[in-house]
Specification:
Length: 271
Amino acid sequence: MATRLWLMKQEWKAVVFLHWPVKSEWLRRFVPDELEVDLYDDQAWLGVVFFQAKATRLRFLPPVPGTRSFLELNVRTYVKYGDRRGVYFFSLDASSPLAVKTASHRGFLPYRYAEISMTKKAADWRFSSRRIEAGRFPESFDMSYTPVSIPIASSPIEQWLTERYCLWTQPENRLYRVDIAHSPWALHYLKGHIDQNKMASFLPASLHRQQPMAHYSRKQRVCFYAPVKEQKEIGCGKLNLGNLKFTPKLKTPGSRLGVFQWQLFSVGLLF
């Protein structure tokens, strides 16, 4: 990648990672056949990640009005293709209509428009997201949290979950990889309370009542590279969540989770 020129730059501020262990079979049919669900100690993982995106700009251009600063919440899992490990997104919600329209053009990424707020009072934060794009399942998320001030030395599983340097996407039955570059994450623990979690509504509702592995990072500067086509044609046997339409018959109950604080302990065997 050293000989390639970056295509876009972006800054991520106040990043929160939430991770839950899940059964790989729960995810398999929502992931393209060519991608292998990545496992840690035989366990698949679901991630909910949110942050403020700032200073978005293409190479040789200043920041684009309407995308300079916006909020994002994404739902992902971790996958492999050959000897590469990366991220596969089930959904990406953003508060910028222009960013959503651009990134979701021709189904490239499953971006959806949402009303999102992130506020801070002293050391305490509040994050809220409501997907409101017409014709899309109205998933939502609410959480209050307080990061721990002292950074941690990341354990192997924390590095495995967060140090991912590419993503795959499947527009128009073609598999593409997008490489990214950034410095290693400086992670902090956080304590928090999830008031509502209706994300990943295709998974069992019981998952939303489990406590996640939770981390915070103050900022990250990211470079994105041009998409690389992995394969000319792929099968169409997987459900594309980016095209999932809302129907009134679908109901996914929210949940109110207890207060959690992630510490170094086994989670039962949580881009």
